[in-house]
Specification:
Length: about 350
């Protein structure tokens, strides 16, 4: 079937093209009966707006660029689902790029998004990004940018993230209340925003219960399992009775390393993650976790960006939106002799 145009609809219904265009936009200027005739004809012949013509007319591409460290990470795949759902409902398409935790790749993907005329960018910073001058330069050119999950205090931008401090506080408090006193904290590189927030929550919980903050129980690790295992082995020399891992891959790597050393969970040590992995309840033992609201974070970030693109809010001001996390207690962090449900 040939693609029909607004001119075709206008010719068939003996209307002007401007009347048809306004009717398809549900303009109040067009009477209801004319709207009905136009919409029914358009649906019958599968009329689709020409995105190129529309973008030229509106001076917008109706495309938003999304840059994440890694799509395979379940957290980011869920966030992308939220972004895509909002973008689709508001008439935008999404182009997705991966930085693969590389600052250089992030620079390249930002350039590619701009070259494709994206109306705005949603970005979660790579694990090696500490300099955000490339994003600041785009803001100076009036390109809307919203950060999500991993943000930067050096960029005056709207940002959406999980309530990392409260989530980490709750995880650490749970371990303390279950009788643990030497809680190791395994986290990602220190310059990433979520690292600082989760470490602060961990420290605050220790302080609340009068436990010392011991630097020897803190380790920073890269993301791969091969990176995690030697870090866990090093921490075991400090005789911890619990591990709080501040990320999906860290938690899974920690679990694998402990099992390899024949450390019994939770009999020898408790384990809790900060994660969105959908298999946490299928692990042996089922793993306690702080669940991050990835879908909601993606939806909120997309709404903020599109509002900014469409001028429905003032120019971006420094503002952080924190979405609440949720504690899920499973067997891996239960006191010895107690199981979930007992």
């Amino acid at each position: 079937m040939e693609t029909i145009t607004i001119k075709d609809i206008a010719r068939a219904l003996n209307l002007s093209t401007s009347t048809v265009s306004r009717a398809l936009r549900d303009s109040y200027e067009i009477n209801p009966e004319t709207k009905r005739l136009v919409v029914e004809y358009a649906e019958r012949f599968n009329y689709q707006p020409n995105p190129i013509a529309l973008s030229l007319k509106e001076n917008r591409s109706r495309v938003i660029g999304v840059i994440v460290p890694q799509i395979a990470n379940n957290y980011f795949s869920q966030a992308i689902n939220g972004i895509d759902a909002v973008a689709y409902s508001r008439g935008y398409q999404v182009i997705i790029f991966q930085s693969h935790e590389s600052y250089e790749r992030e620079l390249l993907t930002v350039q590619q998004a701009v070259a494709r005329k994206a109306d705005g960018l949603l970005i979660s910073l790579s694990g090696s990004t500490s300099d955000v001058s490339h994003l600041r330069a785009l803001q100076e050119r009036k390109l809307p940018i919203v950060l999500f999950d991993r943000v930067s205090k050096d960029l005056k931008s709207l940002a959406v993230t999980a309530d990392n401090f409260t989530g980490a506080f709750a995880a650490t408090e749970h371990l303390i209340q279950s009788g643990r006193r030497r809680i190791a904290h395994l986290t990602i590189p220190s310059y990433i925003s979520i690292t600082q927030e989760r470490l602060a929550g961990y420290r605050a919980a220790l302080e609340k219960y009068g436990l010392p903050y011991d630097e020897n129980l803190i380790r920073y690790s890269e993301f791969g399992q091969n990176n995690v295992e030697p870090v866990v082995n090093d921490l075991l020399d400090q005789s911890p009775d619990a591990f709080f891992a501040a990320g999906d891959r860290l938690a899974l790597g920690c679990l694998a390393a402990l099992k390899k050393r024949n450390v019994s969970i939770p009999e020898d040590v408790s384990l809790i993650g900060f994660t969105n992995t959908p298999v946490a309840d299928l692990l042996a033992p089922p793993m306690s976790t702080v669940e991050q609201p990835a879908l909601e974070i993606g939806q909120t970030a997309a709404e903020l960006l599109i509002d900014q693109i469409e001028g429905k809010q003032k120019a971006a001001q420094p503002d952080m939106i924190r979405i609440p996390t949720r504690m899920i207690i499973r067997e891996s962090s239960q006191p010895v002799g107690l199981r979930v449900g007992e």
